[in-house]
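Late entry, written up from scratch paper. The run itself happened at the end of the previous shift, but nothing got recorded in the book at the time, so transcribing now.
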Amino acid sequence: MGGSNATRSVEQGAAGIVWLAADAPQNLTGKFLRDRKVIPW
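Output as recorded:
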């Protein structure tokens, strides 16, 4: 979604998704996260 101008690599972007699917605590529902941290919205 950023092509050569993206601020993150594909690996960095996928790492958070894989963590959420496989290892994240189950009580993180309904929250926004970045780098394994809850972010306000």
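Residues 3-39 form one domain.
(Scratch paper discarded after transcription.)
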